[in-house]
Amino acid sequence: MSLAVNSLTVEIDGKRVVDDVSFSVDDGARVGLIGESGSGKSMTALAIAGLLPDGAHATGSVQWNGRELLGLPDRELARIRGDEIGVVFQEPQTALNPIRTVGRQIAESVRIHERLSRRDAAARAILEASRVALPEPETIVARYPHQLSGGQRQRVAIAMALACRPRLLIADEPTTALDVTIQAEVLDLLQSLVANDGMSLLFITHDLAVLSRIATHGVVLERGRVVEAAPVADLLSTPTSPITQALLRDATATLWRPGGAQ
User: Fold this and answer.
1) What would the pLDDT profile of 162-183 be if each residue is shown by its tens digit?
2) Which of 108, 105, 101, 110 is CA-nearest to residue 140?
3) What domain range includes position 132?
4) pLDDT digit string, tens, across residues 131-167
């Protein structure tokens, strides 16, 4: 399955925040959207997932395996999200329900999409917690989000997104709020899960060094427009746009150094 974004434009209260953006994510590919804060990368991801905020309007085309997603009824979009397309957000604390155990939240997706019994879904939650390397998964599924560390909460969010084995994962700055050591662990985990499940990946970040760790192709956004698109190795070695050159200079602020693209 593949994702094709063509001439995507997003306006919020009359202000254009995404402007004629086009790119594709082929089956099994790892593509990154990168840009500074306000570049439109997260809004692009939200438009693809059908999760734009109130007051936002998208035009253009977003096709998933040949099916147009823009304008699709919310009920049909909800069926695709989680089942075929998984989404991980930047701050899991806001994505997780504070009054429900993490096990129930992991199990909810498989109960909805795979129609499992409560008992089978609970067992599946333990399996998914183990798959994202949460310690003592049988114990941790009974805990609440506030009882977990930031890295553990992000692993729960990843488990929720991948529980139904989607074909595409959209990860919107999933490591930004974590220290560099935990960033490395989460990125390694994502890379392993994507490879093992044969998923495609759309990874959103402001950090070119992080992008080099997880993606093979990058799309650079500035003020809502695509200014450069190339293999990540080329973005690291021969960036052509001023914004990519600036992102390359900033890349040394993280644990990884330019040149580590895979």
Assistant:
1) 988 999 999 999 887 777 788 8
2) 101
3) 85-165
4) 999 999 999 999 999 999 988 999 999 999 998 899 9
Residue 142 lies in a domain: yes
Q: Rounded to two decimals, what is the model's pTM?
A: 0.90
* Mean of pLDDT over the chain: 90
62 found inside a domain:
no
Residue 26 lies in a domain: no
Task: Pull the structure tokens for residue 131.
Answer: 């798959």
23 found inside a domain? no
State both tokens at 123: 């067992």
Residue 166 Cα to chain centre, angstroms: 12
| Long-range contacts of 126-130, Cβ-Cβ distance < 8 Å, separation of 24 or more | 128/159, 128/160, 128/162, 128/163, 129/102, 129/103, 129/155, 129/156, 129/159
* Residue 233, number of CB atoms within 10 A of its CB: 17
Closest CA to 77 of 97, 36, 48, 57: 48
Q: How many domains does the chain have?
A: 1
